Amino acid sequence: MTFLFLISAGLQAALILIDEFFFHWARGLPRWERLGHPVDTLSLLAPLSLAAFSTPTEITQRLFIVLAVLSCLCVTKDEWVHRERAPAAEQWVHSILFILHPVVLLGAYFAWTVDPVWIRIVVMPMGVFLLYQIIFWNFYADRFFAKRP
């Protein structure tokens, strides 16, 4: 299951980077998405961090499941906005991300009992990406894009 986690998390990361640096940078993000995308990342970081830095017990496993279900629901919240603002190719990337999201969480759940070091390795760059989302889009993006030709 560690393999499932690593492959699905790697694919998810690659698609998120395509979504971010190809689609989001091309169209810009309205305020709702500038706030909502970090919430999505945080909703995934919560169960993964639990698995990365705690021992699997009955309580932590139940908490992981609750956090994972909430995360799967959370990431769909922007689709009303995307339907109107995002091109079809971006929506297709999102659909693949929606498929991968529970697979990553399921893989992490099973990898947790085998070797959580791999989950830690995935969580760390996700934390950096969360900081990027918050700082760039909410404090710097307007100035950055204003300078572009």
Overall description:
With 149 residues, this protein is mostly helical. It has one domain (2-139). 88% of the residues lie in helices and 0% in strands. The protein has six helices and no strands. It has helices at residues 2-27, 31-53, 58-74, 79-85, 88-114, 117-147. The chain is elongated, with a radius of gyration of 16 Å.
Q: What composes the largest sheet?
A: none
Cα shape? elongated
Low-pLDDT segments, ≥5 res: none
Derived structural class = mainly alpha
* Computed CA radius of gyration, to the nearest angstrom: 16 Å
Q: Give the tally of structural domains.
A: 1
Beta-strand content bin: under 5%
Termini separation comes to: 47 Å
The total beta strand count reads 0
SSE order, one letter for each helix or strand: HHHHHH
Average pLDDT, all residues: 95
Number of helices: 6
Percent range of helical residues: over 70%
Question: How do the strands and helices of this protein lay out in sequence?
Answer:
Blueprint: H1 2-27, H2 31-53, H3 58-74, H4 79-85, H5 88-114, H6 117-147
Helix pairs in contact: 1-5, 2-3, 2-5, 2-6, 3-5
